[in-house]
Amino acid sequence: MAEGLQPQLGQSLLFLTDEQLRKGIEAMFFAYRGFTADPDRILAQKGYGRAHHRAIHFIHRSPGTTVNNLLSILGVTKQSLNRVLRTLIEDGLVESTVGTRDKRERHLHLTGDGAVLERALSDAQRDRMRAAYRAAGPAAVAGFRQVLEAMMDEETRHHYEAMKDRPE
Amino acid sequence: MAEGLQPQLGQSLLFLTDEQLRKGIEAMFFAYRGFTADPDRILAQKGYGRAHHRAIHFIHRSPGTTVNNLLSILGVTKQSLNRVLRTLIEDGLVESTVGTRDKRERHLHLTGDGAVLERALSDAQRDRMRAAYRAAGPAAVAGFRQVLEAMMDEETRHHYEAMKDRPE
DNA sequence: CTTGGAATGTCAACAAAGCTGACGTATTGT
DNA sequence: ACAATACGTCAGCTTTGTTGACATTCCAAG
Q1: Residue A41 CA to nucleotide C7 C1', Å?
Q2: How many Å apart are CA A66 and CA A74, to the nearest integer?
Q3: End-to-end CA distance of chain A
Q4: Residue B95: enclosing H or E segment and its boundaries?
Q5: Which pLDDT score is estimated for B99?
Q6: Which residues have a Cβ under 8 Å from the Cβ of B12 and sit 6 or more positions away?
Q7: Is the full-model pTM beyond 0.70?
Q8: How many Å apart are CA A150 and CA B131, to the nearest integer?
Q9: Exposed (0-12), middle (13-18) or buried (19+): which is A76, by Cβ within 10 Å?
Q10: Chain segment A27-77, per-residue pLDDT in tens
């Protein structure tokens, strides 16, 4: 809509037109569906949902994390998280142990079975991600990450960066 | 995990390590929350949800589209879409007209009020997108789009590309 | 021309997962 | 001793997905 108005800028700002932004918005919407499709299929078989996947992912990522910490990462209410956590504990995928230093806290870990499911889910998700990365190439991937990081809320970005370079 | 195993590849494949992929996965999760946060606030005020936003977006994008076409773009069941559409029609944001050629079809359009809400929602979402784009720069944006497109399902990508360059 | 099947859209009922609010219990720290 | 914190739970509501049943419309085969 604006290319006629700012000819002196040449190509440099054309990527900020409403049309380009709309394409980006639709790309996010459609890509997110692909992003979740493979794990969703595995989860549906086991009677779980996306909420279970998120809990499993971050417990795997930060073993021993507390309920409160998980809450602030996931950005949901404790009632909502608790419903998911309860089924995972009942099914023997997650174990909750009373804190040693502070006995009010519960530390969360994946069990062997939990780790198996986590692996299946993240393998499925990584396979698609890897294919996309490989198709796009390293420069594109760097840009992808940059834009996503700039799109996060301030507080969310802190969570993201806090687990940025944790060693394997 | 693998940098010791393939020294002959140098930096070239390091962006495909499990760790890099995991970071991309988390970036998608966290960024999507930011992506939807601003419209969600507007929608909540009016008593609508994300499903209403999606319907409004694509009706705006393709005026006169049929329910069936919208269904295949959104990837939900017709019953689910219908509930959303019904409230939008009742509230006078969308109008549904019986098809002239085929009377089974309903053609969907935004009303004046509907266009006002659409504008508010897309302005909010574009503002964040624009800030992210501006912060990351044009090269990063190109990579962002490339990776997202590679992440879509085959069928989804066809929908995406079908509305790729429709003129304003 | 009729009639049966396919396509389109609507209504009803249920499930997953988010939310608020209230409350109980154990533990910690002042 | 008492207030604050961490966690769990009950009850109830909302949004948005699902399946199943049904009405309307179109089209094509007989």
Answers
A1: 29
A2: 12
A3: 48
A4: strand B94-98
A5: 86
A6: A138
A7: yes
A8: 8
A9: middle
A10: 999 999 999 999 999 999 999 999 999 999 999 999 999 999 999 999 999
The distance (Å) linking the CA of B59 with the C1' of D11 is 39
> Cα distance from A53 to chain B (closest Cα, Å)?
12
User: Straight-line distance from CA A101 to C1' C30, in Å?
Assistant: 19
Verify if strand C has an atom below 7 Å from the CB of A83: yes
- Span B88-115, average pLDDT: 93
Provide mean pLDDT across the span B59-82: 94
Which chain C positions have some atom within 7 A of a protein CB?
A: 7-13, 16-22, 26-29
pLDDT digits (tens, 9 = 90+) for B137-152: 999 999 999 999 999 9
| CB spacing of B143 vs A140 below 8 angstroms | yes
State phi, psi for A15 to the nearest 5 degrees: -75, 0
Residues on chain B touching A12 (C-beta within 8 angstroms): 138
What are B122's two structure tokens?
A: 């897309």
Task: Identify the closest residue of chain A to B153 by CA–CA distance.
Answer: A34
